[in-house]
Protein backbone atom coordinates (compact mmCIF):
# COMPACT_ATOMS: atom_id res chain seq x y z
CA UNK A 1 0.00 0.00 0.00
CA UNK A 2 2.86 2.40 0.83
CA UNK A 3 4.25 1.90 -2.67
CA UNK A 4 0.98 2.72 -4.45
CA UNK A 5 1.19 6.56 -4.45
CA UNK A 6 4.81 6.49 -5.61
CA UNK A 7 4.03 4.01 -8.36
CA UNK A 8 1.08 6.10 -9.58
CA UNK A 9 3.29 9.21 -9.56
CA UNK A 10 6.02 7.46 -11.59
CA UNK A 11 3.51 6.23 -14.19
CA UNK A 12 1.74 9.61 -14.41
CA UNK A 13 5.02 11.46 -14.92
CA UNK A 14 5.97 9.18 -17.80
CA UNK A 15 2.47 9.52 -19.26
CA UNK A 16 2.58 13.32 -19.17
CA UNK A 17 5.73 13.58 -21.28
CA UNK A 18 4.94 10.85 -23.83
CA UNK A 19 2.42 12.82 -25.95
CA UNK A 20 4.74 15.84 -26.05
CA UNK A 21 6.89 13.79 -28.43
CA UNK A 22 4.52 11.24 -29.92
CA UNK A 23 1.26 13.18 -30.40
CA UNK A 24 1.90 13.39 -34.19
CA UNK A 25 1.68 9.59 -34.45
CA UNK A 26 -1.56 9.55 -32.46
CA UNK A 27 -3.03 12.35 -34.57
CA UNK A 28 -2.02 10.55 -37.77
CA UNK A 29 -3.74 7.37 -36.56
CA UNK A 30 -6.98 9.21 -35.71
CA UNK A 31 -7.05 11.15 -38.97
CA UNK A 32 -6.35 7.99 -40.98
CA UNK A 33 -9.19 6.10 -39.28
CA UNK A 34 -11.82 8.73 -40.13
CA UNK A 35 -10.46 9.77 -43.55
CA UNK A 36 -12.95 9.44 -46.41
CA UNK A 37 -12.81 6.37 -48.63
CA UNK A 38 -11.56 8.55 -51.50
CA UNK A 39 -8.42 9.34 -49.50
CA UNK A 40 -5.18 7.83 -50.76
CA UNK A 41 -4.89 4.14 -49.81
CA UNK A 42 -1.30 4.50 -48.60
CA UNK A 43 -0.71 5.76 -45.08
CA UNK A 44 2.71 7.02 -46.11
CA UNK A 45 1.17 9.07 -48.91
CA UNK A 46 -1.49 10.30 -46.49
CA UNK A 47 1.21 11.44 -44.08
CA UNK A 48 3.14 13.23 -46.83
CA UNK A 49 -0.05 14.90 -48.01
CA UNK A 50 -0.79 16.29 -44.54
CA UNK A 51 2.74 17.60 -44.07
CA UNK A 52 2.82 19.21 -47.52
CA UNK A 53 -0.63 20.81 -47.27
CA UNK A 54 -0.86 21.73 -43.59
CA UNK A 55 2.63 21.51 -42.15
CA UNK A 56 3.96 19.25 -39.38
CA UNK A 57 2.97 21.43 -36.43
CA UNK A 58 -0.51 22.48 -37.56
CA UNK A 59 -1.53 19.20 -39.16
CA UNK A 60 -0.05 16.61 -36.79
CA UNK A 61 1.69 17.90 -33.67
CA UNK A 62 -0.62 20.62 -32.35
CA UNK A 63 -4.11 19.05 -32.64
CA UNK A 64 -5.23 17.84 -29.20
CA UNK A 65 -1.74 18.09 -27.67
CA UNK A 66 -2.59 19.56 -24.20
CA UNK A 67 -5.62 17.30 -23.84
CA UNK A 68 -3.57 14.26 -24.87
CA UNK A 69 -0.92 15.04 -22.28
CA UNK A 70 -3.55 15.29 -19.56
CA UNK A 71 -5.45 12.19 -20.70
CA UNK A 72 -2.34 10.00 -20.84
CA UNK A 73 -1.04 11.27 -17.50
CA UNK A 74 -4.30 10.40 -15.74
CA UNK A 75 -5.02 7.10 -17.46
CA UNK A 76 -1.44 5.83 -17.37
CA UNK A 77 -0.94 6.98 -13.81
CA UNK A 78 -3.91 4.89 -12.74
CA UNK A 79 -3.60 1.84 -15.01
CA UNK A 80 0.14 1.28 -14.53
CA UNK A 81 0.10 2.67 -11.01
CA UNK A 82 -2.61 0.25 -9.87
CA UNK A 83 -1.45 -2.74 -11.92
CA UNK A 84 1.26 -4.17 -9.60
CA UNK A 85 -1.05 -4.00 -6.59
CA UNK A 86 -3.96 -5.62 -8.47
CA UNK A 87 -1.67 -8.30 -9.92
CA UNK A 88 -0.07 -9.16 -6.57
CA UNK A 89 -3.47 -9.27 -4.88
CA UNK A 90 -4.89 -11.68 -7.46
CA UNK A 91 -1.77 -13.84 -7.32
CA UNK A 92 -2.12 -14.03 -3.55
CA UNK A 93 -5.76 -15.07 -3.86
CA UNK A 94 -5.03 -17.63 -6.59
CA UNK A 95 -1.93 -19.00 -4.88
CA UNK A 96 1.36 -19.19 -6.75
CA UNK A 97 3.53 -21.74 -5.03
CA UNK A 98 6.48 -23.43 -6.71
CA UNK A 99 6.22 -27.02 -7.91
CA UNK A 100 8.83 -29.40 -9.30
CA UNK A 101 6.27 -30.96 -11.63
CA UNK A 102 6.69 -29.81 -15.24
CA UNK A 103 2.95 -29.97 -15.83
CA UNK A 104 2.19 -28.05 -12.66
CA UNK A 105 4.85 -25.51 -13.53
CA UNK A 106 3.32 -24.89 -16.96
CA UNK A 107 -0.13 -24.58 -15.43
CA UNK A 108 1.19 -22.07 -12.90
CA UNK A 109 2.81 -20.05 -15.68
CA UNK A 110 -0.45 -20.07 -17.61
CA UNK A 111 -2.34 -18.94 -14.51
CA UNK A 112 0.16 -16.15 -13.90
CA UNK A 113 -0.18 -14.98 -17.52
CA UNK A 114 -3.97 -14.94 -17.22
CA UNK A 115 -3.74 -12.94 -14.00
CA UNK A 116 -1.42 -10.42 -15.68
CA UNK A 117 -3.94 -9.94 -18.48
CA UNK A 118 -6.87 -9.71 -16.07
CA UNK A 119 -5.02 -7.23 -13.84
CA UNK A 120 -4.22 -5.06 -16.83
CA UNK A 121 -7.81 -5.27 -18.08
CA UNK A 122 -9.37 -4.24 -14.76
CA UNK A 123 -6.93 -1.43 -13.95
CA UNK A 124 -7.14 -0.17 -17.54
CA UNK A 125 -10.96 -0.10 -17.48
CA UNK A 126 -11.01 2.04 -14.34
CA UNK A 127 -8.27 4.37 -15.58
CA UNK A 128 -9.86 5.05 -18.96
CA UNK A 129 -13.31 5.56 -17.43
CA UNK A 130 -11.92 8.31 -15.20
CA UNK A 131 -10.12 9.96 -18.12
CA UNK A 132 -12.98 9.56 -20.65
CA UNK A 133 -13.79 13.30 -21.02
CA UNK A 134 -10.20 14.20 -21.88
CA UNK A 135 -9.92 11.35 -24.39
CA UNK A 136 -13.22 12.39 -25.97
CA UNK A 137 -12.18 16.02 -26.36
CA UNK A 138 -8.74 15.04 -27.67
CA UNK A 139 -10.19 12.68 -30.27
CA UNK A 140 -12.86 15.10 -31.50
CA UNK A 141 -10.31 17.88 -31.81
CA UNK A 142 -8.10 15.69 -34.01
CA UNK A 143 -11.10 14.49 -36.04
CA UNK A 144 -12.19 18.10 -36.58
CA UNK A 145 -8.83 18.84 -38.19
CA UNK A 146 -9.28 15.95 -40.63
CA UNK A 147 -12.87 16.88 -41.46
CA UNK A 148 -11.84 20.47 -42.02
CA UNK A 149 -9.12 19.35 -44.44
CA UNK A 150 -11.78 17.40 -46.38
CA UNK A 151 -14.00 20.48 -46.58
CA UNK A 152 -16.99 19.18 -44.67
CA UNK A 153 -18.43 17.84 -41.43
CA UNK A 154 -17.36 19.22 -38.08
CA UNK A 155 -15.41 22.36 -38.96
CA UNK A 156 -14.61 23.66 -35.50
CA UNK A 157 -14.15 21.67 -32.30
CA UNK A 158 -16.57 22.55 -29.52
CA UNK A 159 -16.62 21.24 -25.96
CA UNK A 160 -19.80 19.26 -25.12
CA UNK A 161 -22.59 21.42 -23.73
CA UNK A 162 -23.96 18.75 -21.36
CA UNK A 163 -22.05 16.79 -18.73
CA UNK A 164 -23.43 13.49 -20.00
CA UNK A 165 -21.93 14.24 -23.41
CA UNK A 166 -18.48 14.24 -21.81
CA UNK A 167 -18.79 10.47 -21.59
CA UNK A 168 -19.94 9.91 -25.17
CA UNK A 169 -18.19 6.82 -26.48
CA UNK A 170 -17.17 5.93 -22.95
CA UNK A 171 -18.11 2.29 -23.46
CA UNK A 172 -15.81 1.64 -26.44
CA UNK A 173 -13.12 3.78 -24.83
CA UNK A 174 -13.17 1.81 -21.59
CA UNK A 175 -13.13 -1.50 -23.48
CA UNK A 176 -10.34 -0.22 -25.70
CA UNK A 177 -8.33 1.00 -22.72
CA UNK A 178 -8.88 -2.23 -20.82
CA UNK A 179 -7.79 -4.37 -23.78
CA UNK A 180 -4.84 -2.10 -24.52
CA UNK A 181 -3.65 -2.30 -20.90
CA UNK A 182 -4.20 -6.07 -20.81
CA UNK A 183 -2.01 -6.48 -23.91
CA UNK A 184 0.58 -4.00 -22.66
CA UNK A 185 1.00 -5.39 -19.18
CA UNK A 186 0.86 -9.01 -20.32
CA UNK A 187 3.54 -8.30 -22.92
CA UNK A 188 5.71 -6.15 -20.67
CA UNK A 189 5.42 -8.02 -17.37
CA UNK A 190 5.51 -11.51 -18.84
CA UNK A 191 8.47 -10.73 -21.13
CA UNK A 192 10.44 -9.27 -18.24
CA UNK A 193 9.66 -12.22 -15.99
CA UNK A 194 10.47 -14.83 -18.66
CA UNK A 195 13.78 -13.20 -19.57
CA UNK A 196 14.86 -12.89 -15.93
CA UNK A 197 13.84 -16.43 -15.01
CA UNK A 198 15.76 -17.87 -17.98
CA UNK A 199 18.66 -15.49 -17.34
CA UNK A 200 18.51 -14.19 -20.91
CA UNK A 201 18.65 -10.47 -20.04
CA UNK A 202 19.16 -8.82 -16.68
CA UNK A 203 16.58 -6.36 -15.35
CA UNK A 204 17.71 -3.05 -16.77
CA UNK A 205 17.20 -0.62 -19.68
CA UNK A 206 17.88 -3.22 -22.39
CA UNK A 207 15.20 -5.55 -21.02
CA UNK A 208 12.80 -2.63 -20.55
CA UNK A 209 13.16 -1.66 -24.22
CA UNK A 210 12.65 -5.24 -25.45
CA UNK A 211 9.63 -5.80 -23.20
CA UNK A 212 8.13 -2.45 -24.28
CA UNK A 213 8.28 -3.48 -27.95
CA UNK A 214 6.44 -6.75 -27.18
CA UNK A 215 3.94 -4.74 -25.12
CA UNK A 216 3.33 -2.33 -28.00
CA UNK A 217 2.56 -5.12 -30.47
CA UNK A 218 0.20 -6.95 -28.11
CA UNK A 219 -1.52 -3.76 -26.95
CA UNK A 220 -2.18 -2.67 -30.56
CA UNK A 221 -3.52 -6.09 -31.51
CA UNK A 222 -5.78 -6.52 -28.49
CA UNK A 223 -7.31 -3.05 -28.77
CA UNK A 224 -7.56 -2.55 -32.55
CA UNK A 225 -11.30 -3.21 -33.15
CA UNK A 226 -12.42 -1.22 -30.10
CA UNK A 227 -10.02 1.56 -31.07
CA UNK A 228 -11.55 1.99 -34.54
CA UNK A 229 -15.12 1.80 -33.23
CA UNK A 230 -14.33 4.31 -30.48
CA UNK A 231 -12.88 6.83 -32.94
CA UNK A 232 -15.86 6.56 -35.28
CA UNK A 233 -18.39 6.74 -32.44
CA UNK A 234 -16.83 9.72 -30.70
CA UNK A 235 -16.38 11.65 -33.94
CA UNK A 236 -19.95 11.18 -35.18
CA UNK A 237 -22.37 14.08 -35.13
CA UNK A 238 -24.66 14.07 -32.08
CA UNK A 239 -27.85 13.43 -34.09
CA UNK A 240 -26.38 10.36 -35.79
CA UNK A 241 -24.33 9.04 -32.87
CA UNK A 242 -25.02 5.33 -32.37
CA UNK A 243 -22.61 2.59 -31.40
CA UNK A 244 -24.42 0.09 -33.60
CA UNK A 245 -24.39 2.50 -36.53
CA UNK A 246 -20.68 3.10 -36.08
CA UNK A 247 -19.96 -0.63 -36.18
CA UNK A 248 -22.18 -1.15 -39.23
CA UNK A 249 -20.60 1.79 -41.07
CA UNK A 250 -17.13 0.36 -40.59
CA UNK A 251 -18.29 -3.08 -41.74
CA UNK A 252 -20.10 -1.76 -44.84
CA UNK A 253 -17.26 0.55 -45.89
CA UNK A 254 -14.26 -1.72 -45.33
CA UNK A 255 -15.36 -5.12 -44.01
CA UNK A 256 -13.37 -6.96 -41.32
CA UNK A 257 -10.06 -5.22 -42.24
CA UNK A 258 -11.76 -1.94 -41.35
CA UNK A 259 -11.70 -2.89 -37.67
CA UNK A 260 -7.91 -3.13 -37.85
CA UNK A 261 -7.42 0.05 -39.88
CA UNK A 262 -4.55 1.98 -38.39
CA UNK A 263 -3.05 -1.10 -36.69
CA UNK A 264 0.37 -0.54 -38.20
CA UNK A 265 0.23 3.14 -37.27
CA UNK A 266 -0.72 2.15 -33.74
CA UNK A 267 2.18 -0.30 -33.50
CA UNK A 268 4.49 2.37 -34.87
CA UNK A 269 3.12 4.77 -32.28
CA UNK A 270 2.89 2.53 -29.21
CA UNK A 271 6.28 0.81 -29.48
CA UNK A 272 8.34 4.03 -29.21
CA UNK A 273 5.81 5.49 -26.76
CA UNK A 274 6.10 2.45 -24.49
CA UNK A 275 9.90 2.40 -24.82
CA UNK A 276 10.12 6.07 -23.85
CA UNK A 277 7.48 5.71 -21.14
CA UNK A 278 8.91 2.55 -19.61
CA UNK A 279 12.36 4.13 -19.34
CA UNK A 280 10.95 7.15 -17.47
CA UNK A 281 8.62 4.97 -15.39
CA UNK A 282 11.24 2.44 -14.30
CA UNK A 283 13.89 5.06 -13.54
CA UNK A 284 11.40 7.22 -11.64
CA UNK A 285 10.47 4.19 -9.54
CA UNK A 286 14.13 3.80 -8.64
CA UNK A 287 14.41 7.51 -7.77
CA UNK A 288 11.36 7.16 -5.51
CA UNK A 289 12.93 4.23 -3.65
CA UNK A 290 11.12 1.41 -5.46
CA UNK A 291 12.60 -1.55 -7.32
CA UNK A 292 12.04 -2.06 -11.03
CA UNK A 293 8.50 -3.32 -11.65
Overview of the molecule:
This protein has about 290 residues and is mainly α. Helices cover about 75% and strands about 0% of the residues. The chain contains ten helices and no strands. The model has no long low-confidence stretch (mean pLDDT about 85).
In short:
This protein has 10 helices and no strands. With 293 residues, it is mostly helical.
Low-confidence segments = none
Written as H for each helix and E for each strand, in order along the chain, the element string is HHHHHHHHHH
Beta-sheet strand percentage? under 5%
Can you give the mean pLDDT?
A: 86
Q: Roughly how many Å is the radius of gyration?
A: 20 Å
What spatial form do the alpha-carbon principal axes imply? globular
Structural class: mainly alpha
Helix content: over 70%
- Oligomeric grouping of the chains: single chain
Got a strand count? 0
Largest sheet: none
State the separation between the terminal residues, measured CA to CA.
15 Å
Number of separate helices: 10
Key words describing this protein structure:
293 residues; mainly alpha; 10 helices; 76% helix; 0% strand
Give the topology, please:
Layout: H1 4-34, H2 43-54, H3 56-61, H4 65-94, H5 102-130, H6 132-149, H7 170-197, H8 205-235, H9 243-254, H10 263-287
